[in-house]
Amino acid sequence: MVRQLRAEATRAAALRAAADLFLDVGHANATLSQVSAQSGVTKGALYFHFASKEELARAIVDEGHERVSTACAGLVDSRSPALESVIGISYSVLELAASDPLVRVMYRLQMEIDGSETARGSVFCTWGNIFEHLFDRAIEHGDVADHLDSGNASLLVCEMLAGVLMVSEAQSALESAPSRMEKVWNTVLPSLVPPNKLGYFREFAARSLSSFVPSEEFTNA
């Protein structure tokens, strides 16, 4: 039991150090020797858990995906209107990318490594499937326009998320990503929901934002 706990702690330390290193110098420029030095994990122990840098990167993707899925599980399974869940998930994903380096680097790595070889496949494909399911529910309940295609709508949200994430990170302003997403929702909601529900969902998007940004930023949003 003690040995297992020690092994888990060693693996976690290596993942944290690798995430920080990949953010600092990029996956392509980082080495396992640097991960070993930064984490305090011996090279032997590091190679015991990860046979290569690519295997370490895929482990980060899997761990980051698990953290995002756990954070959003309640929203995915919620009995609330499905479009509310989509909006809430979009904020949760961006807030976690801003606050958790491992989650943030996960999205970068999806662009750099072969996601098809990860245990769960592409993070973006997974979220696309979840959003499509939620949009199917939203169409059924009349919360979005009945002519809407759930697959196209889910693709739109994934691209909105990726765009906000990429621009926010490029401008070193990840903490503002949820606020930026609220502005995007305010713009696209008229194309998604019936006119009689537009006011409600715009208000929901603005109100929900307060759970993901500091109070002073929310006041100025």
- Mass-distribution shape: elongated
Name the CATH superfamily assignment of the largest domain. Tetracycline Repressor, domain 2
The largest sheet, given as strand count, sense and whether it forms a barrel, is:
none
In the CATH scheme, the class of the largest domain would be Mainly Alpha
CATH-defined architecture of the largest domain: Orthogonal Bundle
Span between termini: 50 Å
* Separate helix tally: 11
- Helix % is over 70%
The computed structural class is: mainly alpha
How would you characterize the overall build of this protein?
By secondary structure, the protein is mainly α. The C terminus is likely disordered. The chain has 11 helices and no strands.
What is the topological layout?
Layout: H1 2-25, H2 32-39, H3 43-49, H4 53-76, H5 82-99, H6 101-112, H7 123-140, H8 150-170, H9 177-192, H10 195-209, H11 215-220
